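In the design runs reported in the main text, the only information available to the sequence generator was the tokenized backbone. The following block is the verbatim input for one such run; it is reproduced so that readers can re-run the procedure and compare outputs position by position.
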């Protein structure tokens, strides 16, 4: 399986948003970056905390020219419950991430092991995609813990933009 590699074109990504629109990575035109956050779904209390922190930092990301979106393999109903129960109304939230897309982004997939979990879901991933639709940064997790610390990304964007720091990790 190939994986999204820094300095390479990002894999195709399309999914539905809770606001009724379709989201397509190819249509994004950020000033600096698109921040993609793949989360496990409604069943994950760590995802709840992570997305709530992302929502708190949203104005800072927007000020830095970063468009933010979060998506899971959850159904529309489950994603809507996440949005409501987790109080994420101002966060762009997608649902119905196809298995093929999860695999194209090299996300780990898990099968349900307890009640309340969907039969299959993706594990977390976080990607910064630059304004040329190329992968700048990727973090892929096989469990809900150990995700990138979001406040550090605010400072990282400042540093990247101010210094012209290049994407790293392109040599496989």
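Verbatim output:
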């Amino acid at each position: 399986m190939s994986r999204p590699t820094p300095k390479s074109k990002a894999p195709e990504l399309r999914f539905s948003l809770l606001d009724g629109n379709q989201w397509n990575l190819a249509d994004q035109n950020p000033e600096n970056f698109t921040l993609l956050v793949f989360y496990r779904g409604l069943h994950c209390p760590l995802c709840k905390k992570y997305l709530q922190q992302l929502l708190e930092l949203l104005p800072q990301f927007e000020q830095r020219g970063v468009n933010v979106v979060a998506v899971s393999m959850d159904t529309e109903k489950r994603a809507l419950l996440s949005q409501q129960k987790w109080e994420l109304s101002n966060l762009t939230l997608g649902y119905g991430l196809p298995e093929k897309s999860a695999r194209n982004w090299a996300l780990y997939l898990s099968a349900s092991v307890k009640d309340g979990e969907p039969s299959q879901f993706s594990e977390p991933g976080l990607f910064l995609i630059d304004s040329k639709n190329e992968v700048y940064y990727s973090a892929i997790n096989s469990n809900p813990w150990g995700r990138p610390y979001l406040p550090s990304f605010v400072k990282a964007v400042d540093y990247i933009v101010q210094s012209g720091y290049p994407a790293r990790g392109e040599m496989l």
